[in-house]
Each structure stands twice: as structure tokens, then as C-alpha cells.
Design a protein that fits this description.
2 copies of one chain form a homodimer.
Chain A lengths: L2 H10 L1 H12 L11 H17 L3 E5 L6 E6 L8 E7 L19 E5 L2 E5 L7 H18 L5 E7 L9 H7 L1 H4 L4 E4 L11 E6 L1 E10 L5 E2 H4 L6 H10 L22 H9 L4 H6 L14 H6 L3 E10 L8 E2 L2 E10 L5 H14 L6 E10 L2 E2 L5 H14 L4 E5 L4 H10 L3 E4 L14 E3 H19 L3
Parallel strand pairs in A: 3-6, 3-7, 7-17, 8-16
Antiparallel strand pairs in A: 1-2, 2-6, 4-5, 5-18, 8-15, 8-17, 9-13, 9-14, 10-12, 11-13
Chain lengths: 463, 463
């Protein structure tokens, strides 16, 4: 068997791939909606059958929530790499239905600028991306009797609701999963329809709630104004002081663990000619905000942020009420990069706030999400292999991209199992992920399947 | 007839005064609750009968809301002053009923540190205070056939809901009301149970809502954080910048029309030994906030303020949501003093905010309440007369007091009718106005009735 055979088999089986893909898309496995709990299980069972059919020992394992599909294939034996494929079978709710041009759980093929596309909830996120590597593994099975590497698979059903059961699951099944060498994740995007990407940076997060309390009750602003501490005034002052004139965050030591961007990488990103104006224009803005003097891609991929995600206090109804509130609240989150430690950031936030709290106020700081940033070693054998096969598949090298958001599961694999991740995804920015009329270009799906087949061959030494 | 006769008549008729007072308190004239609309009219009719009985030409006049009682008495004729008494017959809702120790609309006499007190909704605010001057006028009628001054009366039924119909009413009936020389208002407090007060300063108000808009929709803080303008960050920064380190308000020209406090007045207030710690301790605070280096009474009566009364934006539910909101909102009000013009303050606020709005944000500023501050001339004949009679009644001179809050009707009388007001009230700080178990000390009511009788005699030249 050669890579050429596998790729030819994939190309020859497009209709069969599409048929299986559509079967999976027809299952409305919406994890957020209890009415779809049985559908989530059906999707897990569908995957169990699919993996069993291509030679995997497969189990649907229970969690406190929706089940997880775990499968293993020993590969050819010998000293081959052990890859752990991660994906999720659950999807976002399809509401509002009236904005869909075709039923969200009846996959429909439409023509687009890049050829045919599939419109359905989950078309890309993540059923389409899972189908790419499942199809590559099936071709290995059908052409060569099995994959050239040792393979494990973990497909969860709660990614769209924050993977509440996953950390416990990883800890419980660590012995079974830990032997892998690398986690392969396809849940990210290409740079554009012709340019592949390897995501090597994921920003982390520290998300807190600040609760400020002052007087023992709401006060009349006439009688007490000028004497009583106003917690909303105070909260505004604290939050307003978290950035300086240049948009830099003023927490003590905040940038200590933020490494400079290597010149070569900065140049590579510069050469991408990212269209800042279009990026912002799509959301009704025209000028980058935040840290001054940096290009948009650096701000998004390699610089930390501080955003107030919510604020509330006092009278918020119609008209006026002359009240000095007894309390004020805000949700504040930091996107983290480099070696920033979310817990150190929480500590710094706490110091920053408490230093500004006068005698008569009381503050509580709740710590919610804490995810460390992830930086993938761009010189690792996994990234090197992915770079080679993507260059072959697309005729141009992949972009070493960042992601502004967190993918918490990647941090979990690192923290709980000690495993690095290789993130190669084939979505496009216009896929309408989480929105009505989610779509996945057929060319992307096939490029993805072929790339995964190439990667298997490359790593298994069968190029 | 002499003042002594009138005062003796008042003292001899305590039981009759109490009987009429209780009759009025039994009418649940809650202006805020439509179910009590008929009760409001009953209270107006009760007052019409009372005023008619003591020689007034009286009408119950319609408004868009609850009716207004207007009455006139020509007095003895000749060159006597013309006083316009203002009061309101409506009361706050009594809820929560379960916190009352006796039914709110069944007046009950209890013993207190200052002797008997009446517990009922409206006991002091404003039925009790209205009953004081009504009783003084009745004694004039019964002893001398009528008051020694020309008298007009205006008793409205919507004060507790912000007097929405009053300005239009004053304008409509200006010809009827404008001939008065001075408005007499009893809706304020004494300094303490033994010390009368004339309120000569009322803070004004400018109340605005700031609505900030940025992106065309809510954004994911991972994808857009660091590039997209966060309107809550911006709003915090703007609001947080409205005070300097010393608690002074930073709007351009804000203090231009704030006169210094005359030394003599500052000394008088100082000599009152106002207990700042107790004042703040009652609301769970210990240290004055706001402008540094000023005593609490000056902060409350003679200095302007800026309080954020409400703020909202973004995600305010449980837990975390990684959103950059498209909009953010705040309600901001200023208490004004001296010659500050609410509209000039609005203009300054608008400039302050707009100077800080970057290209990508849009702001709307709604102007709600605008009431100019009121400063009564302490050397006027009305204040001088009140000072003399209060000194006689209490054996000590009255405090020239301020009020932290606005009494909008006082500004309306000035603006619409060109009339100054004389504010002499006999409530106490512990009267639980607007709260369960509202009370009025019987001694205060009788002191008030006697003081009003003395004032009528003093101004009518019959002392």
C-alpha cells in the first residue's frame, strides 16, 4: 500500500463518505437540550458502529452527562507512533429555526464560491471535521487492513456545553489514554480556502466575578450622596483603571510571562496580509481597540486581554431612581498567552482590586474558568510532519496560526494526561459555526480527509 | 384676639385635632396604586369639607391624575401678606404590611421617648404636617372668625409619585395662584426633637442615562478580544474618571457656580455637633466618602455630587460567558447646589463623555430629571418672621438647615409662578417616612400647629 493508493481510494469513495457524513448529521445530537439526550446517545452508538466496522475495539462509556466514545486500534505493531484522535459528536442548538434556509438536521448540498457545500447543524463543528479523519482511517482499513500507526479515539458529547464531564473522564481513564504520544484535534480553521493552518497557540483564560458591597441597604442619593460610598462609582474606577492610555493592562506583573513574538513569526503573520478593516467591518467597527501599535493578528493570537464581560448594579429600569446601591458586580476575564498562569493572574487581580477598596467597602472575588494558554512547540516532530503533508496536499506551506479563544480540552489533555496536541482543522471563517445555516465546503472536507491520510502515512513511515 | 388666645384654643382642642387627623389618616390615599384612586378622591373631598368648614372657598380640581384641592380665604382685608400653603394628601404604599406593628390605616397612639406618637401611613408625610397648619387656620376661624393674613391652599395628590400633573396644573391655574407672596411648605424636618429648623437650601438634580454602543452584535471575547472595542471597559473608564483623587468631580466647569459656604453658616453647622459616625453607622458605614476634607453636613447640604445610580451591560447571569457586549448603559445623577444650572451640567457631562468616545463607539445621552438647586434668602422677611416665632415656640433659635434631596415642587413654584418658599417642617429623623410604622410625635404636631399659628399672627401684625 502507498499513500497514493489511500488518496485514490478516498477520492473514489466520495459518495460513500458523503452518505455516512449525512447519516451522522441527521442525528440531532444537541447536548444542551435534555429533549435530545437520546439523540446524543444515538450519535455515540452510530460512531461505535462506524469505528467497529473499521477494525477498532470500541466502547460507549458513561459519564455524568452524555457518553464518550472510546476506541483503540493496535496498528501494525512495532515502533510506530500512537495517535489519540479527539472530537465531539454533540452540536449547538439549531435555534432560531426560521433563519435556516433548509432544515438543520436534513443535510443539504448547495453551491458556493468554493464548489459544493453541506448545510446542516454540525456540518463542520465537529461532525464534518471528525468525518475527515474517520474517512482517512476507513480508507486505511479498506485499502491496507488498518492504519499505519497505533490509534486511539475519544469522541465526547458535551463540548458545546463546556465539557463538564471530560476532566473527570480523562482522570478516570488515564491508564487507557495516557500511552498515546500526541492528541490530534480537528476543530479549528484553515487560513483561507487555499491555505492550510496548524494552530500552535491557544490563548488561555482567567474569568472572575467581582462583587462589591458597601452600605447595609440601598440609600437615597439625596440624603446620603456625598457621604456614603457608592459601590458603582468605586467599581467603575477600579475597572476603568485596569488599562493605561496605551491599552496595556495595569495589573502588577501582568506581562511578566508574556514572551515577545519571534521576528520570523511576526514576519510570517505580517505576510498573510490580514485584512483588519474587513475583519472589523463585518462587526460594524473600523479601528482596532486594545493595545496600541500592534497588528490585529498579534493582538488576537499573541497578546493578552482584559474584558469586562458583564456589569450590573443599582437601578436599571425605565426612567430615573435616585438610589445609591448597596452593591455592584462585574464579570471580568483575561485572555492569556505565553507562560501566563491563570492563578497568578487571579492573585494579581485580587491584589489590584483590594488595594483600591476603601475601609467601608467589602469585596468578594469569585474565580470561574481558569485555563492556561497553550503554545505548541513548532519544531516538534508532529508539527514538522503536519507541515510536510499539508504542504504536499495544498501546494503551499501551512500558516502557523493562533487562536484567540481557548480550547479547554487541549489544556486538559496537557494537564491531566501530560499530552501535547496537534491542531489541524479545515474549517473556514465563513462556516457560520454556532449560527443558522452552518456549512462545510466539500473541498475542505476532502482536503482534510486526504491530509489526515497523508499524516498517518507520514508518521507511520509509509510515505 | 391675641396670639395667646389662639395658642390656648389649640391646646384646649387637642382631642378634636386628633380626631380630625385620625379621620384623614384612615383614608388609604395611596397615589401609586390604581386600586386606591377612589381613596385619593375621598381624601381630597375630606379636605374640601374641612377647608369649607373653616371659611375657605374650596374646589377639588381635576388633573390627568389625582385631583388637587385649591382653597382661598380673603383674610381680614387690607395690606396683609398672602400666604400659599402647599401640602399633599397622598401617601406611600404601606407594603410590606407584615412589618407594621399596627394596621397602617388605623392610626394608633403609642408611647415613645418624646411622649405619645401616632403610628400610621402618612402620620407625618404629609397628612400630619398638613394637619398642623389646618389646625392653626381652624383656631383662627374659631377664635377670631378667620386668619389674619390672606390665605390660599394647594394640596395635591401625586407628590409620592413625582407630582406628574403639578407643573401643568400650576401653569393652568397661574392666575389664581400667582398673587400669593410666599409659599409655605411643611414637609421637612426639625433638627432634633427640641430644635426647630428652617430649610433654606435644597440641592438640585440633573439625572441622565448614558447609552454606549460599539459593535453591531455581541462578540466572542476569544476571537475579538484585543481588537474590538469593549463598551463596558469604555464606560467604566469614563465613569471612573468623573472623580479625581480627592473625590472632586472632574467635569469641566463643574464647580464654577458653587459658592463657598459663608463662614458664619459653616460655624453654625459645626456647632450642631452632627454625629457623622452615628449617621453613617446606621447604614453600616464608618467613613465619609466623596469630597475629602469637608464635614458631613457640608457634603450633604452644600456640596454637589455625582453618583452612578445604575449600570448594566453584557452577561449578568450565573457563571461565565465569554462575551464582549455590543452596548453598555449607566444612569448618572448630579446633586446640585448654589447657582448650578442642571442644563449646563448636562451639557458639560455630554462634552466629558463625547471627548472620551473613540471613533468606533456611539453614545446617546438621555436627560431625565432636571431640577435647579434652591437657596432661600435667609434675610427675607419670611425667614426672619419664621425665625422669631420658632424661637418663641421652642425657646431656642431654629437651625438654618439644608436638605440633601430635592423638593421638586419648590423649584416648580419658583419657575412657574415666580414664588419663593418658606420651608418649616416638624418631622424627626426617626419618623420612618416611607417605611413601615411611620410615626409622628404628638408633641411635634402640636409644636407645629402652634408655630404656624404664631407665624400667621406675626405676619398678620397681630402678635
Amino acid at each position: 500500500m502507498t499513500t497514493t493508493d489511500i488518496l485514490a481510494h478516498l477520492d473514489a469513495n466520495e459518495d460513500a463518505i458523503r452518505a455516512r457524513y449525512f447519516d451522522l448529521l441527521r442525528i440531532p445530537s444537541v447536548s444542551a437540550q435534555p429533549a435530545h439526550a437520546d439523540d446524543c446517545r444515538r450519535a455515540a452508538e452510530w460512531l461505535r458502529e462506524e469505528l467497529t466496522a473499521i477494525g477498532f475495539m470500541t466502547e460507549v462509556r458513561e459519564t455524568a452527562g452524555h457518553p464518550v466514545v472510546v476506541a483503540h486500534h493496535p496498528g501494525p505493531g512495532g515502533n510506530v507512533p500512537h495517535l489519540l484522535y479527539y472530537g465531539h459528536y454533540d452540536v449547538q442548538p439549531a435555534e432560531p429555526y426560521e433563519l435556516w434556509t433548509s432544515p438543520p438536521f436534513e443535510p443539504t448540498t448547495l453551491d458556493g464560491p468554493n464548489g459544493p457545500r453541506t448545510v446542516a447543524r454540525g456540518a463542520v463543528d465537529d461532525k464534518g471535521q471528525v468525518m475527515m479523519w474517520l474517512s482517512a482511517l476507513r480508507s486505511c482499513h479498506e485499502v491496507a487492513g488498518g492504519p499505519p500507526c497505533r490509534i486511539s479515539v475519544l469522541i465526547e458529547g458535551e463540548e458545546e456545553v463546556g465539557s463538564p464531564s471530560l476532566d473527570a473522564f480523562l482522570a478516570q481513564h488515564a491508564a487507557d489514554l495516557k500511552p498515546a504520544d500526541i492528541v490530534v484535534v480537528s476543530d479549528t480553521n484553515m487560513w483561507d480556502a487555499r491555505t492550510p493552518a496548524i494552530t500552535t497557540r491557544l490563548r488561555g483564560m482567567a474569568y472572575a466575578q467581582i462583587d462589591l458591597y458597601a452600605a447595609s441597604r440601598d440609600l437615597h442619593s439625596g440624603l446620603y450622596g456625598g457621604n456614603a460610598l457608592n459601590p458603582i462609582n468605586l467599581l467603575s474606577r477600579i475597572l476603568g483603571g485596569m488599562h493605561d492610555e496605551n491599552g496595556r493592562i495595569t495589573l502588577d506583573g501582568f506581562y511578566d510571562a508574556v514572551p515577545p513574538i519571534p521576528n520570523a513569526l511576526a514576519q510570517q503573520w505580517h505576510d498573510l496580509n490580514f485584512d483588519e478593516r474587513r475583519f472589523l467591518g463585518e462587526i460594524g467597527l473600523s479601528t482596532p481597540s486594545g493595545e496600541k501599535g500592534l497588528p490585529a493578528l498579534q493582538r488576537m493570537w499573541a497578546r493578552p486581554t482584559c474584558d469586562v464581560n458583564g456589569i450590573w448594579g443599582g437601578y436599571t429600569g425605565e426612567g430615573s431612581k435616585t438610589v445609591i446601591a448597596a452593591e455592584a458586580h462585574a464579570k471580568v476575564s483575561f485572555r492569556l498567552v505565553g507562560y501566563q498562569d491563570p492563578h497568578a493572574i487571579f492573585d494579581s487581580l485580587e491584589r489590584f482590586v483590594k488595594e483600591r477598596i476603601p475601609e467601608d467597602a467589602r469585596v468578594e472575588i469569585q474565580r470561574f474558568g481558569a485555563a492556561p494558554p497553550v503554545t505548541v512547540d513548532e519544531d516538534s516532530r508532529w508539527v514538522a510532519a503536519a507541515r510536510r503533508v499539508l504542504t504536499e496536499e495544498f501546494g503551499k506551506p501551512p500558516v502557523m496560526a493562533g487562536s484567540g479563544g481557548s480550547i479547554p480540552v487541549v489544556a486538559s489533555f496537557k494537564t491531566i494526561l501530560g499530552l501535547d496536541s496537534l491542531l489541524i482543522g479545515f474549517g473556514l471563517d465563513d462556516d457560520a459555526v454556532h449560527s443558522p445555516n452552518e456549512k462545510f465546503d466539500w473541498a475542505c472536507l476532502m482536503h482534510g480527509a486526504r491530509s489526515h491520510a497523508r499524516l498517518l502515512a507520514e508518521l507511520g513511515g509509509k510515505a
